[in-house]
Amino acid sequence: MAENVAGFHLTGEIEMPTQYKKVISSIGLNPLYTNKDGNSTLFHASCLNVMDSIPANSIDMIFADPPYFLSNGGMSCHAGRRVSVNKGDWDKSKGIEETHKFNLEWLRRCQNILTKDGTIWVSGTSHVIYSIGFATQQLGFKILNDIAWYKINPPPNLSCRYFTHGTETIIWAAKNKESRHYFNYPLMRKMNNNKQMQSLWSITAPKPEEKIYGKHPTQKPVALLERIILASTKEHDIVLDPFTGSSTTGVAAYRLGRYFIGIDNNKEYLNLSTKRLNFEQRTKHTVKEEIKTVEKDIERLVAV
Length: 304
Ligand SMILES: C[S@@+](CC[C@H](N)C(=O)[O-])C[C@H]1O[C@@H](n2cnc3c(N)ncnc32)[C@H](O)[C@@H]1O
Hints:
Layout: H1 18-26, E1 33-34, E2 40-44, H2 47-53, E3 59-64, E4 75-78, E5 81-84, H3 96-113, E6 114-124, H4 129-139, E7 142-150, E8 167-174, H5 185-191, E9 200-202, H6 222-232, E10 238-241, H7 248-255, E11 259-264, H8 267-303
Parallel strand pairs: 2-11, 3-6, 3-10, 7-9, 10-11
Antiparallel strand pairs: 1-2, 4-5, 6-8, 7-8
Helix pairs in contact: 2-3, 3-4, 6-7, 7-8
């Protein structure tokens, strides 16, 4: 089959680049969903099984938002009301040793499938982030930054016995000590009024329009994922999210022209992902069509 310089197949409706196609077919599972553009794919399975079949050195960037294992009967505040923090059975803790064992298992697989200069971002609260940090050190990742994501308007602390939890940590690490990771320094600087961007990021919780198809209990804001993707990947890179949930990573990847693979073992969350990704595809084409119409109008006006 003919290929152009960017490695795209030139025949067929869906233009999948060779590397992305190779990764998808290596998984040996029928995807639950592939979008019409052929650049976003979802798998309904455990991420451990899926990552076992992905060839080594094939993924450019991974964003992981693993279970925090905090759903153990605690209380929080939502819209001024006292609510349970329980997110679901997938978020129940089996104890710190089991949690650490699980973190080592999935992180080991992530390290194997990352390209030699690839990077991983992992977000978490205090329930899980120390285990993640220790596991990345044990596995020989190279830690690049620990971002403090400041949520600006976090829910108040009802017990009044602690400070309000206003931040979440996001660890950014390269595959290993030899990695020469990609960082779009000029763009980050530009996005920060021409000053070096710090590791303190002020980004609000997901906006209501990010939840029109339903809510995931731990949904991340699209703005957070857009910044992560812009900072650490190039156009057409392959981005993977092993705990994709509502696929915030997929939405941001699609908007920015990256290839996306999302995995989750919960079908309900994947149905939400599908709706969000379909919406992105539909609106992208509407906007493109709008631009074409406007351009034609301008051409016509200029010709008169
Ligand atoms: C913290 S949430 C991710 C939320 C996501 N970042 C978003 O913006 O919607 C973690 C997700 O991991 C999924 N999960 C838990 N264990 C898993 C496993 N072993 N393999 C794949 N997914 C898993 C849960 O179903 C849940 O949707």
